[in-house]
Amino acid sequence: MNWLRPLGQTGLQVSCLGLGTVKFGRNIGVKYPRDFQLPNDRTARSLLDQSWDLGINLLDTAPAYGSSESRLGELLRGDSREWLICTKVGEEFENGESRYDFSPEHCRRSVDRSLKRLGRERLDIVLVHSNGEDTAIIENYGTLQALSELKREGKIGAFGMSTKSVAGGIAAVPQCDALMLTYSLSHREDEAVMDACLDEGCGVLLKKVFASGHLTEDEADPVLATMRLVLTHAATGSAIIGTINPAHLEANVAAARQAMA
Ligand code: NAP
Prior knowledge:
The protein is built from 10 helices and 12 strands. The protein is α/β, with parallel strands linked by helices. The strands form 3 sheets. It has an 8-stranded parallel barrel. Strands 1-2 form a two-stranded antiparallel ribbon. Helix 3 (68-75) runs parallel beside helix 4 (104-118), helix 4 packs across helix 6 (143-152) and helix 9 (222-231) packs across helix 10 (246-260). It binds NADP nicotinamide-adenine-dinucleotide phosphate (NAP).
């Protein structure tokens, strides 16, 4: 098992752990077990440096993660390291509430705004940020088609969807370069979608592998047990883990390496 893995057929080589950055930019309307302060710039920069030094090359953000995109843009300005960044379209978080717009027009505006915020000429990966109505989004809105056009125009490298249902995931596979799926010791339903991704060469990013911090109490070492589950599935490109705790970051990478040894 390799640390760097191909993300489906995108041509991208992603580290098998990625850093999720919800907690860099948003601490309201989230479902983590404990309240937290957003990390200051010094702490956030240090988490990025630590991630890179531990072998992580993939950062996951979204317009819906509060100030996460803008902060990453600022923190990475002038950074010559070859980070891969995944962001999203479709969900906005304003005045403490989520709002969804899956129209092609919004999708284009959102991608242009992400390019600006992140200070990039091209976004490596852009996913539709589903509100749970995966199949309706795929069938009715033309969001994936808009992303496909943006890819042809060179504004994005790869596109796909962060889904919330097995049916939605299965429907998305043939139209996407990559999917973001939920997979953890307590949530295995998306295995069916992971299998379909493997069959069709669609890349797989995983979210909520620690159930957003609600780690299972059924395992003596839930971190290692999680890594053994998620990183040994042949479909897994990268498990995106959200942390702002340097000790957790280090422990997660150590557990990942142990799980793959
Ligand atoms: P997660 O990665 O399953 O869990 C993160 C939580 O686990 C944090 O509260 C973190 O707290 C804690 N944690 C991390 N490592 C730990 C360790 N070794 N021991 C104990 N606790 C640990 O869930 P998530 O943040 O919801 O999801 C991960 C990423 O996926 C997000 O950041 C985001 O990028 C992406 N995501 C995408 C969607 C979507 O719809 N597209 C939805 C949710 C998430 P500390 O900060 O204290 O470490």
